[in-house]
Amino acid sequence: MRVILSIRPKHVRKIISGKKRYEFRKVIFKDRSVHEIYVYSSSPVKKIVGKFNVGQILEDHPEALWEKVKDDSGLTKSDFYSYFSGKNKGYAIEIVNFVLFEEPIDPKKIDPKFIPPQSFIYLKD
């Protein structure tokens, strides 16, 4: 199973550079057979710029998550805690083998009705 994740361009740049090795989510996909993630870089880019394989998916209280992955988070402690504010659980998806597409994909050219996901959408094989 594959999904498209919406990620802000500043975080996409950190994934590309290797500074961000985990993608954080407040909610995760129910189908845990997801093995590949396509990265939709949100506005102003609005394109699918790459993909990666799913490594470990860590599920824990935000404080415990931070301690486990802070060095590979690509985030400041302040930004991390701001994102998870008021949450008792968070998820860290390990980014494995990120591939940057030579030519980003405009999903509207494939499906004119494409609506960027708030968080993620499943892809049909």
From TrEMBL:
Residues 5-97 form the ASCH domain. Coiled coil: none annotated. InterPro entries: ASCH_domain (IPR007374), PUA-like_sf (IPR015947). Gene3D superfamilies: Hypothetical protein (2.30.130.30). This is ASCH domain-containing protein. It comes from Methanofollis aquaemaris.
